[in-house]
Amino acid sequence: MDVYEAVTSRRAVRGFIDRPVPREVLERVLSAAAWAPSGSNLQPWHVYVLTGRPLGELKELADRRVTACDPWDEREYEMYPPTLKSPYRERRSAFGAERYSALGIAHEDWEARQRTASANWKCFGAPAALFCYIDRGLGRPQWSDVGMYLQTVMLLLRAEGLHSCPQMAWSVYRKTVAEVLSPPDDLVLFCGMSIGFEDIAVPYIRTGRALLDETVTFVDDY
After folding, report:
1. How far is C-alpha 40 from the geometric centre of its chain's CA atoms?
2. What is the rounded average pLDDT of the residues 162-186?
3. Distance between the two ends of the chain, CA-based, in angstroms?
4. What burial class does residue 160 get, using C-beta atoms within 10 Å of its C-beta: 0-12 exposed, 13-18 middle, 19+ buried?
5. Which end is more exposed in the chain, N or C (fewer Cβ atoms within 10 Å of the end residue's Cβ)?
6. Each residue's pLDDT tens digit, 203-222
7. Whole-angstrom distance, CA of residue 197 vs CA of residue 195
8. What is the per-residue pLDDT for 217?
9. The Nitroreductase domain covers which part of the protein (predicted)?
């Protein structure tokens, strides 16, 4: 798979089959991803990888919270601005409409939407997951570095025939994640990522992208 194919075939997959991901594949991907760029080579990512029993324990703990209607943990960072202006507001709305439409869920069916969202805590059935932390003393540029690292991981997973789903949703269950991982107090959970082989039986609509001239401005003399 070349780089262009990896980029265009990567998407957030929300349905995986119960097929184990070999440890050596995960090690190969994460070893190569370490070459992702970061300002002054700080490499600000701290990653925990869960499979097997530990991942099962996390899913069980999270499911208990869902069943008990336990309130979310307070986020340690702002996921979206309180008010999204155009065109970001419309893009977010379109994403939600496309996702639930693919699953046959009406916009007003809040209960069904909540059930679908709860699949996050089961990692969509994935047999492997990683959780990415960053030191709470670092700044916005280092958070950007973490994003470049995670994109590199996802593209390398595609090269291995695997799919993934980055999940900032885990930030509201960060205390549950910490029960299993016991991370140092100076780390902030940025996101989780489900990893595995896609369940092609799960329906989806591929989300679109803005036209090039909506996001890119060429300044040249052509």
Report:
1. 26
2. 97
3. 33
4. middle
5. C
6. 888 888 999 999 999 998 87
7. 7
8. 95
9. 8-196
- Report the alpha-carbon distance of residue 1 to residue 162 in Å, rounded: 12
User: CA geometry: angle at 148 spanning 175 and 153, to 5°?
Assistant: 75
Residue 91: partners with Cβ closer than 8 Å, 6 or more residues away: 210
Tally of residues, the chain: 222
Cα(60)–Cα(203) distance, integer angstroms = 25
